[in-house]
Write a structure and sequence with these properties.
There is one protein chain. The protein is an all-alpha fold. It contains 9 helices and 2 strands, in the order H-H-H-E-H-H-H-H-E-H-H. The protein has a two-stranded parallel ribbon. The longest helix is centred in the C-terminal third of the chain and has 24 residues. It is globular and about 55 Å long. It starts with a helix and ends in a 5-residue tail after the last helix.
Length: about 170
């Protein structure tokens, strides 16, 4: 009897959504956390004391001047697409998939906290690596999660049936 009850509660769309979310997280962590050039805790100590020369940006909104200078003086658009738009786009699935799969994440505040904390975790994990750590990534990633959240709400507004399709059946 219990097996039939559990089987009837299965939601294939939700299960597929959770698998897609898991694959997304693996890809996100692979691109942002997995060391490409090695890890060194002594390097992390040096980075914290000499932030400017070792790839740590603690100047809020510096991304605007860096992108402007790259475009205006060097004719390079890559920093705009990769650093600015890329940091936003890479977190949009967080804002879209979390409320799609879990009711609690439909609240703006919860999603804001999750987006910020996940970004903070990634930036902290990059400290002992030979990678850049940037305070602007925190707000750009969080903005991406919030934009994903807005896309979710606009989609649900147009297709209300979608809201419950991926939720757990109880």
């Amino acid at each position: 009897m219990k097996r039939k009850q559990k089987a009837s509660q299965r939601n294939p769309l939700r299960e597929a959504g959770v698998i897609i979310f898991g694959i997304y997280l693996v890809g996100l962590f692979y691109e942002t956390i997995i060391p490409k050039n090695g890890v060194s805790f002594s390097y992390a100590e040096k980075r914290i004391t000499d932030t400017d020369s070792l790839g740590i940006n603690l100047h809020l909104f510096r991304v605007f001047t860096d992108v402007y200078n790259a475009i205006h003086y060097l004719g390079l658009w890559q920093p705009f697409f990769i650093n600015f738009l890329g940091n936003i786009a890479i977190f949009m699935p967080i804002g879209f998939l979390l409320p799609m799969l879990w009711r609690k994440m439909e609240k703006f505040f919860y999603l804001l906290i999750v987006g910020f904390c996940l970004s903070l975790f990634i930036e902290t994990m990059q400290l002992p690596q030979y990678r850049s750590t940037d305070v602007d990534d925190l707000w750009l990633n969080t903005l991406g999660a919030l934009l994903g959240f807005l896309v979710y709400h606009q989609l649900v507004k147009r297709m209300p049936w979608l809201k419950e399709k991926f939720k757990r059946r109880v």
